[in-house]
Amino acid sequence: MNLSAELNHPIFKAVAEMAAETGVPVYVIGGYVRDLFLKRGSKDIDFVTVGDGILLAEKVASSFQGHHPVSVFRNFGTAMFHLDDLQLEFVGARRESYHPDSRKPDVSSGTLEDDQKRRDFTKCPGNKPEPGFLRRTARPV
């Protein structure tokens, strides 16, 4: 399945342009990709960038006409905004570690692979990621 052909909403062009302007790679991840495999519609799109996800969200939001307030969650390096009926979330690739006495992660910048390792794949296609799975399911924009 060529998932790139499915990324035809104007948001993907705007994200790609702002990522290129910022000089960071960006990928579509999570439930939106899963729903493409399942041929289901989705109004929630998650992006991961190997860079500043908050800055990218702010640039993308400002590239559209109208006011699109960006909610920022600095502790986790995430930001989100709504565009029409879409909820868009942006995160900088990160790694997480946990203390034995806490469920709250310590967050630091990471690679795409670090970010994917922290995700729950039980709800994504396939129960266990096989070799190469991460590269096939994180779709470049």
Architecture overview:
By secondary structure, the chain is an alpha+beta fold. The chain is built from five helices and eight strands. Helix content is 29%, strand content 26%. A six-stranded mixed β-sheet has the order 3-4-5-2-1-8. Strands 6-7 form a two-stranded antiparallel ribbon. The longest helix is centred in the first third of the chain and has 13 residues, at 10-22. The chain is globular, with a radius of gyration of 15 Å. Residues 124-137 have low confidence and may be disordered.
- Globally, the shape reads globular
Number of domains: 1
Low-confidence stretches are 124-137
Mean pLDDT comes to 80
CATH topology: Beta Polymerase, domain 2
List the total number of helices. Answer: 5
Number of strands: 8
The CATH architecture can be given as 2-Layer Sandwich
Portion in strands:
25-35%
What is the percent of helical residues?
25-40%
How do the SSEs run, as a string of H and E? HEHEHEEEEEHHE
The largest sheet, given as strand count, sense and whether it forms a barrel, is: 6 strands, mixed
Pairing-aware structural class of the strands and helices?
alpha+beta
SSE order and pairing:
Layout: H1 10-22, E1 26-29, H2 31-37, E2 44-49, H3 53-62, E3 71-73, E4 78-83, E5 86-92, E6 94-97, E7 106-109, H4 112-117, H5 133-137, E8 139-140
Parallel strand pairs: 2-5
Antiparallel strand pairs: 1-2, 1-8, 3-4, 4-5, 6-7
